[in-house]
Write a structure and sequence with these properties.
alpha/beta, 7 strands, 39% helix, two-stranded antiparallel sheet, Rossmann fold
Length: 302
């Protein structure tokens, strides 16, 4: 039983139901009971191993369902490679206690729906109004918008003052409109025509532009958001965002790592293929470069 529990923690993410439009590839060995000397005949047998996952002595049926709900549903967790056993214990304890299932009350559900509605409506409007124009939409990954809102809200609760955001062009316009609160007229002006002060200004394409803003979080606290400009070179903004965050932490907040949070958005192919990602990660624990940790979000719009 302990081996079954350990394998769910190690390999459960390979059997998650995270993709609504494509079947998951087959991995072996599976987590079938037969691979652990068990069968459905044992479903009603009580095992003390249930204490390992926080439910006390329990029948095999309850233990298996608890493990499936925690590690093989719509959220996958790959974490058993971590060497720090204290972190492992915290992760397993936290996820298994809640069965890795977020609970939202009606107000939160309405709020998430409103954010999704804004994200979807924005893409539909641009598609109809500016048909054929290149924009690198967020279609298929609109959940990024409520995710960013809740990330910023949680950061504000924990005492964060600023978020430094680095991202590629996929979904940037939607982030500008629905997270950064850049005025719609300024965004749409980039689709129609541009005017610059000075004849030598050439500007840049709309899906490379950055933006700074101070937003109010639930009317309780102001948070500064900085979305950095980004070239077409995927992941090139990653070290720039980390460098800006480090500079703010050092010069503005006197090395207080709890005040600035870098948020880095990646494409699902770029994060695996671009070497700069891992070059920057290698600097994470160097005192002169550490920002205290970053939030990484991988966008896969298929």
């Amino acid at each position: 039983m302990l081996r079954l529990i350990d394998d769910y923690r190690k390999r459960g993410h390979l059997f998650t139901q995270t993709n609504p439009v494509r079947s998951r590839r087959k991995y072996s060995p599976t987590l079938a009971l037969e691979n652990y000397g068990l069968s459905e005949k044992d479903y009603d047998t009580v095992f003390h191993a249930g204490e390992e996952i926080g439910i006390g002595p329990a029948p095999l049926r309850a233990i298996e369902e608890h493990l499936k709900q925690t590690y093989c549903r719509s959220i996958g967790a790959e974490f058993m490679y971590i060497r720090d056993q204290e972190k492992i214990r915290w992760l397993t304890g936290t996820m298994e206690a809640s069965k890795n299932t977020p609970v939202f009350d009606q107000e939160k559900k309405k709020d998430i729906f409103d954010k999704l509605k804004l994200a979807v409506g924005f893409e539909h409007f641009i598609h109809k109004k500016f048909t054929g124009q290149k924009r690198f939409s967020l279609e298929g990954a609109e959940t990024l918008i409520p995710a960013m809102h809740y990330l910023i809200r949680k950061g504000a609760e924990l005492g964060m003052e600023e978020f430094v955001i680095g991202m590629p062009h996929r979904g940037r316009l939607n982030i500008l409109a629905n997270v950064m609160q850049k005025p719609y007229e300024d965004i749409f002006r980039e689709f129609i025509a541009k005017t610059y002060d000075g004849s030598v200004s050439l500007g840049d394409v709309k899906y490379h532009l950055g933006f700074d803003n101070v937003i109010s979080v639930d009317g309780k606290k102001n948070i500064r958001l900085s979305l950095l400009p980004n070239p077409s070179h995927l992941e090139a903004v990653f070290p720039v965002a980390e460098g800006l965050a480090k500079a703010l932490i050092h010069r503005k907040y006197h090395d207080d790592l709890t005040k600035v949070c870098p948020v880095i958005l990646h494409g699902d192919a770029a994060i695996a293929g671009q070497g700069v990602v891992y070059e920057v990660v290698q600097m994470a624990d160097l005192e002169a470069y550490s920002t205290g940790g970053s939030i990484h979000i991988v966008i896969n719009n298929q």
